[in-house]
Amino acid sequence: RPLRPGSFSKALFLMVSIRGDNRVTYRRRHAYANRGNRVRSVRTPGGRLVVHYIKKGSNGVHAPKDLGHQQIAGVARRRSFEYSRMSKNAKTVARPYGGTLTADQVQERIIRAFLVEEQREVKKFFKEKSKKEKQKAAKPKKAAAAAASSGKKGSKKGSAGKR
Length: 163
Fold this sequence. Notes:
The protein is mainly alpha-helical. It has three helices and two strands. A two-stranded antiparallel ribbon has the order 1-2.
């Protein structure tokens, strides 16, 4: 049925009076509403409204900023002082650079190292190949030059020996 003027405020008043007062007070001595003092209002089974303090969260472990600053999967998101009480397998991942780099970054490093090594081998192969080709090209010239020079030298030696 349609609301009559003024009936809405009566309904609102009844709702507030049934639920009670929604104001809460801090339980600790810190009275400022800042990051370190966040609270959540919780109604107990007995009907009281109490305050639960919310812990500060953490952004978790990230890769270095120059490598993209992505969050590392598999590492627990805790505040820094809580890591001292955690086991090692909760703080790292079982691979090289486990708690430092993401899986994609490690994969990229491995591929890059492999490609650099391949490139080095290819460069070495072509260098040896060109060296062999130069030696082959130089051998006929040397042989021809040696044959020509040996004939001249022999005649000189022979003439020198006859004198």
